[in-house]
Design goal:
The structure is a homotetramer of 368-residue chains.
Chain A (H helix, E strand, L loop, with lengths): L5 E7 L3 H16 L5 E8 L3 H11 L3 E3 L2 H6 L5 E4 L6 H10 L3 E5 L6 H14 L3 E4 L6 H11 L7 E9 L16 H4 L3 H16 L3 E9 L4 E3 L5 E3 L5 E8 L4 E7 L8 E8 L2 E6 L5 E6 L9 E5 L22 H16 L7 H17 L2
Parallel strand pairs in A: 1-2, 1-4, 2-3, 4-5, 5-6, 7-12
Antiparallel strand pairs in A: 7-13, 8-11, 9-10, 11-12, 13-14, 14-15, 15-16
Helix pairs in contact in A: 1-9, 4-5, 5-10, 8-10
Chain lengths: 368, 368, 368, 368
């Protein structure tokens, strides 16, 4: 019997995504039967005190402050990139050169030129690589994919429409943050949340053939910590229409200006025999209309996606006991570890992330 | 070919129910192919000016003020009773003696003694008779009945629970009205709205074997028009549990003290293979859970009950174009006219209304 | 005291819209205190037998078969046009010349050239004129307008997105009908249902500055009555993005290929202090998010739009007793009659309908 | 500065509740700033291999098999009882004698006699004690409590109605399990899930004055592992009506025979100025009707209980990112540890659990 492998992880980033990924690395082995042991070896951040606290609270063996050193460290197997977007490319390319398996937060890069270099790097080094589009692994979304693939809504897709709406900067007095600056974030709502629904469009329906788009920056300047105003040079919202290569129609909206919508990633897909609809704010549900039901009893079914045979669910709780946002990261880690050990490609990999990046660029150009 | 019959109607009552029934008599022949012509001959009220106005506005040939005369009038075929509850028995008995077909608003009477006399009268005279439990003829409710009868939720019913909740007297300053006085109304929430859900319980599941109940009058006195206080001697709310003869469990609630619930008649029925749920505030919908669906795709279906093959619907509008509250009265009239012409019993008839009345009495006693 | 006026109406068209308008003319005086009496003088159709039946069933004094004669008839005050779209212009222009008040079904015409001629005609003759965009007068939609105008969602609108989705031709075997032929209908989903949401966009938010669009005909040919195939030369679906002149973003979708969506006209509007959302399949509801509520108690309110102080409601039933689809036509008639008698412009008038028509043309061009 | 304390925990039980509590002990220090360190010292089960596996997977230092030894072990500070109900009393009494802080799964005991002895034991030993009615600490439920206490629904409660409905044994072929045997479980749906809603009734509204009840065992025998049939001697469902001491009316239902209801703990509370409604299947939501809103804008608000100022939320994720079932146990642990360290009583303590137990007994007697 071969010795069971241990995979040592270094996490870069200590903020929101750092917390979410830390939790996922901790929880994955508690609920899933992983094919390797996980060692949470190091967490890396620039702020020494904050990183030390994070290491202790989040369960990492040590705090480190030099991403180049930890990325090169021969004891590390996996580099997990949770930094702001402008650091993704440099770190990922270094990690690839050092032969690490790489998990990178979305969007893969600030633009497709950067993303292209990252793909080249991981291909050259042949390292396992994955972009953390975690919503693919919400059970209801994974079920959507299964149901489309098995023909539950027919052999032809007519419409995919998705909306990712938040309201955290709808208030004009919300201050300037890095997500509102082009040089760090690359884009605004488009790259931050629009990237998720483009990934889902491609995951669930297929490649996009063309787009038209409009964008807007509703609040043009924001107050900085220095009590001066800085220009907002990213989009607050973007609306997109287009077509998929398979003939389906596409409609997308990403906005941070929808009061009352806290984290509403919703989509509806219409096929020739039925429809599927999802809303992340009700993430344990999937609505399904089956046109094959008898006419008197047709209606959208409100499936509670917590049954043992639903994707990822049997490892959690009994039917009707819902899971939360962070579980989608646990599922991502579970599948990434499985991909590393079985040497099968992880999905979505960097090449896939590049395709999404190209659509982001396409939309940006179309919206000018 | 036999000459087509004309049925002349006299309506007693000019208020809320008078308006609803008038509309139904007017609209029924416009949308349904009735087996007789309808003549809206007379509307009867005590207030001369008000009744004259009602006649004109609501479409009646003449206004009359003496219910005894119109009930005895040989040119009248149908007496439609929409008066306060305390007048039901006397009018219905007179109308039966005069050989009229009778439609009576619910509850049939103030108590089962009165109701018994009404049943005796219509049996003796063999006149067509019907109690206007209009909610039986909401399409979604009629569909519920059809689906239970065809075994869609299995051959065994486990639970029927219904709630009729309103909030129009939850405010302590709401004044005294006849519905809050025992000598006119018979009872409070119980007879007014509780009667509807008892009728539906019996219609959908079967006869009730026994009950336990509690009742409450939350606001004990109300201001009258004379600026003095009068005692509220009816129930504000009643809660009931019990069993049906077929073994199913019963749970009922009628209340006028549920802020936010405007006219919420809701029920849920659980059977051995599925469940059905309804809410009058969403009256064009029926929720259906089919335990025979594949496990991954089970969920309550939100059926929009506006398809051509749904009960009563093909006479109205295309799919998805909803109907309103008053349409349930139109359906009641349609079926009543059909029963008169075809000489088949109307449902629910007075005998059926008496059974409901006995359950009301049973609950009143249990709740003491 | 001036003698009360009687307005004589001639209705052109006996099908779906003919039935809906007939009902509205009949019901309006029963529930609303109109400033004139209504005489339902004539209904006009080409099929003699069918038109005679319609006259009797729908309550018109006489059936006529020559639209030119009835339009010129000096005893007629109002011409109500419910014919297929290709006849709108010719009839309306003749009616204007004859000095009639004109109510015309939407879309006003097949294109803006036709619509322009109609506007010229009514302006020249100074006759009252209105386009029957009935959904403006759904109480929840009228309430939306009131709430926007009084600043309930702030002084700035960020987003208007609307969708009109049906599924009646999603089945490939559905046969060819006039609505799928360009020469009769002008366009497909765009003109039929898209026109409604464009009208609502303009009504609720303001004029549209520019659009991008994609369209698709999913099923390219349909079986005719002659058992041969005919080409579908209208759009099955159209997706639009754009901007309003006031800076708000626009997103529209009209489709007949959304299985499970029977008559789903839905919109969501986001403003700087709140949001409003509506769905015609739940037409007695309006969802309202008020960003001024205390943070712990913020959430979309599900307003049941059946309170006495909601638009049009006090003339119907008590709170919680819902109204149906056809009531929106009653409200339209009520306001049209009021406009005629008070000599105030009806809204939306033909000039308004022309503006909507121009947006339809703009979208058609953009979608090529 | 006083040395920071470490609390050593022994968990008894390795099944569903064992997993849920293990997760809570692991996660609490990762997301909350606890006033003590937690040492997950031992997990105890009868099945040696299974317990060893559980220890490893769930994160316990050692597996032990003798509950008496571990309960007496001087290195243990906290005993967490997750065994079947029939073992609660004996273990808790031993743990109390050994001076341990005790967290006990609900229901506290099989009956109030047992519960009384447990209360006596913890009082005598003055040890911290808590019953794990975890649903009190779902954020939406904790918010309900806060809003009632601050008068958001008025100074008077009219109605509390709750339902706990599941469907896992609605299928007649589901086999015999310990939860269906009186001698182990004490009661059926009543004690298992009814206990939760009785606890919530008492937590949210106050003490119960009296009850009437009916119960039923729909499926009287079930197949055992030995392929013979055993009698089901617990209730499958129970319906309760009653009154609170403060005059509010009570309606409860607990059932395992509601197809489609997976884990539906729902309640609605009506007060003199508003209403609150909750459904565990949508556990991140709370519906709130405020009768003080302007009439045109009144409606149930659908509050997404994920704002930073909602109970427990700021320690998790940003607004709109929902949490799951197991988080309610984390909150329970957090509050229990706080109670131990600050020497304040934990809520609900055993004395509180005894009161709930007495209501369970009262219902059982009433339902005979």
């Amino acid at each position: 019997m071969p010795k069971r492998r241990t995979l040592s992880v270094a996490l870069l980033g200590t903020k929101f995504m750092g917390r979410a990924h830390s939790n996922a690395w901790r929880q994955a082995p508690r609920f899933f039967d992983l094919p390797a042991d996980i060692r949470m070896a190091a967490i890396c951040g620039r702020d020494h005190a904050g990183t030390r606290r994070a290491a202790k609270t989040l369960g990492w063996e040590r705090a480190v402050y030099d991403w180049k050193a930890v990325t090169a460290d021969s004891s590390i197997d996996i580099v997990d990139i949770c930094t702001p977007n402008d650091a993704h490319a440099e770190i990922a390319i270094a990690a690839a050169r050092a032969g690490k398996a790489i998990l990178c937060e979305k969007p893969l890069a600030r633009n497709s030129t950067e993303a292209r270099r990252m793909v080249d790097a991981v291909k050259r080094s042949r390292v396992p690589n994955m972009v953390c589009f975690n919503y693919r692994r919400v059970p209801a979304v994974a079920l959507t994919k299964e149901m489309i693939d098995t023909g539950e809504i027919g052999d032809r897709i007519y419409h995919f429409r998705a909306r990712y709406a938040q309201d955290w900067i709808a208030n004009e007095n919300f201050p300037m943050v890095w997500r509102l600056q082009s040089k760090v974030a690359g884009s605004g709502a488009l790259g931050d949340i629009g990237a998720h629904i483009i990934d889902l469009a491609r995951f669930l329906v297929g490649e996009i053939a063309g787009v038209s788009a409009v964008r807007e920056t509703f609040v043009k300047r924001r107050l900085t910590k220095n009590r001066s105003y800085a220009k907002v040079d990213v989009d607050d919202a973007v609306n997109v229409v287009g077509k998929f290569k398979n003939g389906a129609m596409l409609s997308l909206e990403a906005t941070r200006f929808a009061p009352g919508r806290k984290n509403q990633l919703s989509f509806e897909i219409n096929g020739s025999r039925g429809s599927l609809a999802f809303d992340l704010e009700k993430m344990n549900r999937l609505r399904f209309y089956d046109a094959r039901d008898p006419e008197y009893a047709r209606g959208f079914r409100d499936i509670i996606v917590t049954e043992p045979n639903h994707p990822y669910i049997k490892n959690w709780w009994p039917a009707g006991h819902i899971i939360g946002y962070e579980h989608s990261f646990v599922h991502t880690i579970v599948d990434f570890v499985d991909a590393i050990v079985t040497r099968r490609p992880a999905q979505p990999d960097f090449a896939d992330g590049l395709k999404t990046q190209r659509i982001l660029d396409l939309i940006r150009r179309a919206a000018r």
